[in-house]
Amino acid sequence: MQIEDHFDTVASRIEASKKRNGQRQGDPVRGVEAITTAVMSESKNLRLLSGKPALDMAYQKLEN
């Protein structure tokens, strides 16, 4: 495979990303603050649950 073989896939991903830009739920400033707090914390957790879908999935795993 050559890099040229991936051009169509990459182009479609770029277009999909452009369409989603600015359309995501949540507050990006709060997200950055949470990530910064986690990274700067002395407690180095391996996971950071960001957003309701991630939290819901974690609760579901704990229940099963």
The span between the termini is 43 Å
Q: Topology as H/E string? A: HHH
The helix/strand class is: mainly alpha
The helix fraction, in percent, is 55-70%
Query: Please, what is the average pLDDT?
Result: 87
What's the Cα radius of gyration? 17 Å
Number of domains: 1
Share of residues in strands: under 5%
Would you mind describing this structure in some detail?
This protein is mainly alpha-helical. The chain has one domain. It contains three helices and no strands. The chain has helices at residues 7-20, 28-40, 52-63. The longest helix has 14 residues, at 7-20. The N and C termini lie far apart (43 Å).
Write the layout of secondary structure elements.
Elements (H helix, E strand, L loop, with lengths): L6 H14 L7 H13 L11 H12 L1
Task: Give the structure's gist in a few sentences.
The chain has helices at residues 7-20, 28-40, 52-63.
Keywords:
single chain; 64 residues; mainly alpha; 3 helices; elongated
